[in-house]
Design a protein that fits this description.
Blueprint lengths: L2 H29 L13 H24 L21 H11 L1 H39 L3 H61 L1
Length: 205
Amino acid sequence: MKDKDAAIIFELVLIGFQVLIWVSLLVLAVFGYGWLRLDGLKQWSTELSVALVGVAYMFGLIFDKAVGALPYSWIIGGGALTRTGDLPSPLLMRMEILAKKPEVYEILEKRINQHRLVRSTVFNLALISLSALVFFVAQTGFTVRLSVVFLFLSAVFLCVTLFTGRRSAETLNFELFHAYKAINAPAHDDAGGEDSPSSSKDRAA
């Protein structure tokens, strides 16, 4: 397995564990935690750990795709970036960069993966705060101070998501456009050089 593939899998597993945290909090808020019997699970700890990693990977993949498919995903750095000028769509530019300069594509891909990890992490932190609020209200009762704290944390994480996501998306878009132009610049120059002799002959005629 390549290092790049291992890094992507690790990032998705990490995102999946974040999803499992707030999903578990919601489940415990609805059903309580009296039915949990952790002592009987010790003998299955190895098998459960492997299964948990697999479930985390699945959740991470689904959550990452879901966030990227939001209607306003460009605000949080999703894939729905608009075209700029006469340039093709970002997806077509990435495919052309992959075909012409795979090493440049790998650098851009690392930046995109890092951005997706940060975006999903901050998004999950907001959901964890809301889920923790629901859990404590359902299991321990409503308190104004606790509710204010968790609502404040959730609002902070959502604001950070919108700010960092949009700025990161703009930076990625900027790097993608300039990499595309730099890769295609020599071809344009060669084309101009080939046309110049014929144009000079026409002028001489």
